[in-house]
Every structure is written in structure tokens, then in C-alpha cells.
Amino acid sequence: MINSMWSGVSGLRAHQTSMDVIGNDIANVNTVAFKQSDISFEDAFYNSMGSPTADTAGKQVGMGVNVGKITQDFTGGLLQSTGVPTNLGISGDGFFVLKDAAGLQTTYSRAGDFEFNYDSGADALNLRGPDGKYLYGTIGAASGSASSMIALPGDIQDMMISSSGQISYIDSTGSLVENAYTVDIATFPGETGLAQLGGNQYAETAASGQPDFDSTDHTIVQGYLENSNVDLAKEFTEMIVAERGFQANSRTVTTSDSMLQELLSLKR
């Protein structure tokens, strides 16, 4: 009886976590390039009163439920036109490579809501995200391993980025300078193993593996941003399922409590 109560409590906790995941997904329905998460449960350990044999099924009673895993769905979101030339969207796999001003801390993101940041010391324009991290790439027309901060002359008239990431610009004299940089896109053998840092950024982990810059399974779209991939119909359906699961486990707790009260009343 007590075990059933604790099984119910484990169910309440698991379904509360499920609601936390759903609530976070819905809260970020309009967050640039946000990726929704999926949660799955697994049964907890078993109290064995008799192991299965060739002639019997055994006697094992489960002790509740645990959260099995919470994984992100990296399916691409729809690209929406913004008309801002410094906004970039990725169609396909991969992440932008971002680093801090010192170039020491590397993070990865699909949110391409960059803006020009003027470096007066170098008289250069950098592409910087809203969190202050800078977009990195490779000098020239060929992709590399994102070793150089994008730094264009401070007096350019216009900037163009090709679908494969080459950056060209119109300089102060009106001349076209082609392929000054290439925006590198990183992919990971196990992208679901990336650590979420907040601010639309991820960090490499042992589970994700090291970044690979050889993939060409992507297209960079200038003047567009990737929308969140949150599916509200799916989230609301899962919300109903989580609510019903929570209610059912609440009934397990209250019924176990009623049975316990009946047991205690036998001594009166």
C-alpha cells in the first residue's frame, strides 16, 4: 500500500517534469531557431518476490516511474524573411560558430540574428549576435574550421552572402570585393548530445563529438531567420496527456491514503 503511494508520487514528479518541458517549448514558440524537446519515461526498479522460472511468470512489483530522457528535436524551422542583410538562416544541418571577443570560448547556434558591430580600433565591422558573441569563419572563398572573426572594412556600402556562405561586399569606392570570408557551418555526429547553454547557444560535449566542417548539406539564406520548430498542436495534445497522467497518479495517492486510513481504523 505504501509502495503504491510512492509509485503515485513518482508519477506525479515525472508528469510535472513533462509539463515543465511542454511549458518551456510553448514559452519559446516565437524564439529564433528554438528547438523543441521531447520527454520519455521509463519504469523504475522492481521489488522481486519471486524470480520468473520455466513454469512461472514470477512475482515482481514495479516501484514507479522515472524520466528516461529529454532530447531536442533538431528539425529545421521555417525560414522567415526579415529584409535585414545581417540576418542569416540555415536551411539544412549545422550551426553557426560563435566566439567571445577574445576568441577563447566557442559556442554554436542556429540563430542568425546578427548585427554589425563597429570596432573603432581596427576600423572594421564584425557580425555580432544579441548575446555579444561574434560570428567566425574563414578568410577567402573556401570553407575551413572557423578560425577567423568576420571583419569587414568599416566603410563598406553593402554586403552580400552566397548560399554556400561566401561573403562579398561593395567597398567605399563602389568596387565589388568577392569572397572576402566564408561563413563556416559546424555539424556534429551526435547533435542531440550538445549541451544547452541558453541564449540559443550550445556547447560541444563528449556525447556530441567534435565539430565537423566538411558537410555541405546546408544552405545559408541572407535576410532570413529560422523560426522555432515548436508544433503547438503537438504540445497541446501532450499537455492533455500529461494532465491526465498527473490526475491518475493523484488518484493513486489518494486511494492508497484511503486504504491506509481503513487499515488504521481496524484497531478501534
Please specify the SSE layout and strand pairing:
Layout: H1 2-27, E1 37-43, E2 46-50, E3 59-62, E4 65-72, E5 79-81, E6 88-92, E7 95-99, E8 106-109, E9 115-119, E10 124-128, E11 134-139, E12 148-149, E13 151-153, E14 158-161, E15 166-170, E16 176-183, E17 185-186, E18 195-198, E19 201-203, E20 218-222, E21 224-226, H2 232-265
Helix pairs in contact: 1-2
Features:
alpha+beta; 268 residues; elongated; 3-stranded antiparallel beta sheet
Describe this structure in words.
It is a single chain. This protein has 268 residues and is of the alpha+beta class. 22% of the residues lie in helices and 36% in strands. The chain has two helices and 21 strands. It has helices at residues 2-27, 232-265; strands at residues 37-43, 46-50, 59-62, 65-72, 79-81, 88-92, 95-99, 106-109, 115-119, 124-128, 134-139, 148-149, 151-153, 158-161, 166-170, 176-183, 185-186, 195-198, 201-203, 218-222, 224-226. The longest helix is centred in the last third of the chain and has 34 residues, at 232-265. It is elongated and about 100 Å long. It starts with a helix and ends with a helix.
